[in-house]
Specification:
about 0% strand; 3 helices; flat; mainly alpha
Length: about 120
Amino acid sequence: MTFNASSSHLTGIIEALILLIIVLLLWGGHFFPWHIIPALVESTGKRELKRLWAYIYGVGCIWLGAVAYAEMHRAIGLEPVLTVGNLTCIIIAAAVGTILPRLVKRIRDWQVKLSETNHE
């Protein structure tokens, strides 16, 4: 698909969607039932990926974002390059997708602990 110059105003929307997809992929990776693939998890019953596979998954998501940015630029007739700004946005999106689920879990755990304390 190729965009013409008049449709280049969609660039910002497409960039935001690329970043949202990265966040959702990494967020979803925290909740995916990895234990259905035993070779990827630490031990039986664990749901978390082995460290190596977690890094591969995370870097793969960042790579996917970089490719998407480059292909979007190519589609609108620009050089398919990744600027430092683009890469920074991708890395920030990856960080949000990685940190936010952990933060939500900690807040949820804190709320449970607080409610147990209040019921005593």
